[in-house]
Amino acid sequence: MNKLLFIVLLFQAVFVVAQPVPQGREADEAKLTTTLKEFHQAMVKKNTVSINQQTDKALSYGHSNGWVETKNEMIKNLETGYTGYKSIKEDSLQISINGNMANARFVGDYEVSLNGGNAVVYHLKVLEVWVKKGNRWVLFARQAVKQN
Question: How far is the C-alpha of 120 from the C-alpha of 145, rounded, in Å?
Answer without folding.
Answer: 15
